[in-house]
Amino acid sequence: MKKAEKAAAIQEILERLYPEVPIPLDHSDPYTLLVAVLLSAQCTDKRVNEVTPHLWAVTDRPEVMKDLPVEDIREIIRPCGLSPAKSKAIKELSRIITEEHGGVVPSTFEELEALPGVGHKTASVVMSQAFGVPAFPVDTHIHRLAFRWALSTGKNVARTEADLKRLFPRESWNRLHLQMIFFGREYCPARGHRMRDCPICSVYGRRSLLKRE
């Protein structure tokens, strides 16, 4: 089976399993999404969703956040981990958004990636989920699945992103990356995974990995 045919078959399975794909991070606008995605680095979405209401109770507006003491922000977001770096980034990006973008989260990759604490993956999530721009954010789940399904070499997330964008229709990227995240969590976890019991790996998994089981 050609790789493109495999990709189409996998997409059909994901569509059947996840016809509805809610955005995992709770948010009310591009700014709260941006902050939530930043907090999700090396932290679960569940934990972020538990923490952000406490932050929004203080403020969910960049023009106010920029004036909060960084120590106050750090104390609230501490359960998310990496709080010293994340709190500084939240305060500074809030200042930049307020002073340089009129209080509005910028809607280009270049401007987003110029913000403190915002890398390509974070920018991709915001572009796709807040602004509807086709993007394919690659997190650890997607990176793992793309390798297990032999859709990418798995050398790095940049290569995985490029490979997936080449295989799947552009109009499906925003939906598909969420479907893959949900599938990875439910059926294809990093640990304790048996490929032969997986709805996709059992049929389309990388042969070298299947042989090990």
TrEMBL record:
Binds 1 [4Fe-4S] cluster. It catalyses: 2'-deoxyribonucleotide-(2'-deoxyribose 5'-phosphate)-2'-deoxyribonucleotide-DNA = a 3'-end 2'-deoxyribonucleotide-(2,3-dehydro-2,3-deoxyribose 5'-phosphate)-DNA + a 5'-end 5'-phospho-2'-deoxyribonucleoside-DNA + H(+). Its cofactor is [4Fe-4S] cluster. Keywords: 4Fe-4S, DNA damage, DNA repair, DNA-binding, Endonuclease, Glycosidase, Hydrolase, Iron, Iron-sulfur, Lyase, Metal-binding, Nuclease. PROSITE patterns: ENDONUCLEASE_III_2. Residues 39-186 form the HhH-GPD domain. The keyword DNA repair applies. Its EC number is 4.2.99.18. InterPro entries: DNA_glycosylase (IPR011257), Endonuclease-III-like_CS2 (IPR004036), HhH-GPD_domain (IPR003265), HhH_base_excis_C (IPR023170), HhH_motif (IPR000445), Nth (IPR005759). One of its GO terms (molecular function) is 4 iron, 4 sulfur cluster binding. PANTHER family: A/G-SPECIFIC ADENINE GLYCOSYLASE/ENDONUCLEASE III, ENDONUCLEASE III. DNA repair enzyme that has both DNA N-glycosylase activity and AP-lyase activity. The DNA N-glycosylase activity releases various damaged pyrimidines from DNA by cleaving the N-glycosidic bond, leaving an AP (apurinic/apyrimidinic) site. The AP-lyase activity cleaves the phosphodiester bond 3' to the AP site by a beta-elimination, leaving a 3'-terminal unsaturated sugar and a product with a terminal 5'-phosphate. Belongs to the Nth/MutY family. This is Endonuclease III. It comes from Neolewinella marina.
